[in-house]
Each structure stands twice: as structure tokens, then as C-alpha cells.
Amino acid sequence: xxxxLILDALLACGLLASLALFLSMKREARTNSVASRKRIxxxxxxxxxxxxxxxxxxxxxxxxxxxxxxxxxVQAMRMLRRNEDISHISAALGVTRRExxxxxxxxxxxxxx
Length: 113
Description:
Layout: H1 2-52, H2 70-81, H3 86-93, H4 97-112
């Protein structure tokens, strides 16, 4: 009878130890799950913030124009000799008004020498 009592006690202790181990593993899994969920929520919040912002405008440089080439310079000088307006010349040649004004200044300087 005593050997059966010892075996039953050992069996009960083993079952209690197994139950304690199972419960501690469940608690650890739950705490890891909560911590992981918190990290996932933080990452999702950051993603939503980034998606909610307006996209930053990308700087796209404007391709340089050809400007005044020899043909346009000659045509501009002909139009100037005909006393046409600077704004009309710049519109006709597709260049800025400042480029035409610069051409006039350079022409005056080179003609003065």
C-alpha cells in the first residue's frame, strides 16, 4: 500500500510540475505576443504617418535651352535694326527678354571698340 501511495504522490507532483511549466510558458508567450503587437502597431503608425503626408516634391532640373545661337543672334540684330520692340523679338525667337537685352549691350560694347 505504501509503494502505491508513493507512486501516486510522485505522479501528482509530476502532473503539478507539468501544469506549472505549461502555465509559465503560456504567460511568457502572452507577454511576447503583447510586446510584438506593440511593436507592430508602432510600425503601422509610422507607415500611416508617412503615407498620410504629402509626397515631397522631387527636384527635377529643367533641361537647359539652346539660348541664342548664331542664327538667332543674326535674326535678333536684323529685327533690332528694323526698330522692332524687344519683347516682340524675344517672343518671335523664343528667348527671354533679358537675353535680348544682353545681346544689345554686348553689341554696343563690341561696336564701341
